[in-house]
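Closing statement on the NAP sub-project.
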Amino acid sequence: MSKAVTRLALIGYGNVARALARLLRRQHAKFPFRITGIHTARHGTAVAARGVPVDPVFGPAAASIDEFLDAAQADIAVELTTLNPATGEPAISHIRAALARRMHVVTANKGPIAHAYADLRDMAARQGVEFRFESTVMDGAPVFNLVRYNLPGATVLGFTGALNSTSKLVIETMERGGSFEDGLALARSLGVTEADASFDVEGWDSAAKTAALANVLMDARTTPQAVSTRGIARLTPERIAELGRAGKTVRLISRARRGAGGITLRVRAEVLEKTDVLASVGGTSNVLLLHTDLMGTIGTVSISPGVEQTAYGVFGDLVDVTRG
Ligand SMILES: NC(=O)c1ccc[n+]([C@@H]2O[C@H](COP(=O)([O-])OP(=O)(O)OC[C@H]3O[C@@H](n4cnc5c(N)ncnc54)[C@H](OP(=O)(O)O)[C@@H]3O)[C@@H](O)[C@H]2O)c1
């Protein structure tokens, strides 16, 4: 990347944004990004043309996203606010406001990708700027960039993925003799559940990831609500034990398929052989298989990703954007 400083406006300063700020500080000599503004919901806003430190002193919150972006004077807006899986807002409006100012946008928030991807992609193209979102599915593991850079000329016909960590932790806890609630408590303690854990166990997290993947990789123009979804809420330790004796387990599986009648999208708790590649990773690890016309099926696996990997996915997008 060129050594010119690239200015960043961070919208949201929670776990991911703070991990990103630490990563940017460590990499500063090689990658001269400068955070010129941070805007949050309750902590307030910090703006400094010469750079906002990792532990900023926040002033009063900017009155609007427009006021914040005008003050921050950044090259790239980084949207890292809380996921709203039902509507994708206010992140969609944040991204539109940044694109309207001809700022590039990088986000880890899958709401906008699951609800408004085609609109935002087209707006970015009209404005002549980049819109990137690698960390929205499988944290920093390459999914969207894998297709963008490594599958030129191929069409994604569908995908199959075990993408929800909470459900895996619940199932594994029951396999060890614990209860559903024990599993949920473990997932909470590891910080992998969404703010409302029912999003995970009822399948809405997987539905949002399925919609996001389908929108980007298959131009599905869908929403999480249109994904046929059933979660793991009715699974019991008894059923899991019975399946275990037969060498089987359960995973919450996202499936997409392009057929004659269009694209079908569904999320189900599926019974799998324990040796199935989709069941072969546990805990917070995820696996995604992409089914293509020219390259058959290939996959990507993330092993025990944490917030550092999510932050890396955002960082990788930032580096890529600055390369032009
Ligand atoms: N955590 C992960 O490992 C992970 C992995 C992949 C993707 N993601 C996605 O990354 C995003 C950030 O996750 P996180 O774990 O960092 O969330 P978080 O810790 O809950 O932080 C969210 C931040 O957004 C701010 N915020 C909320 N609503 C806002 C609004 N209307 N305007 C301005 N700021 C607002 C909050 O402000 P206050 O600080 O004032 O409350 C907070 O700073 C989410 O969309 C999440 O789904 C996270």
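The first strand starts at residue 6 and ends at 11. With this model delivered, the sub-project is considered complete and its resources will be redirected to Aim 3.
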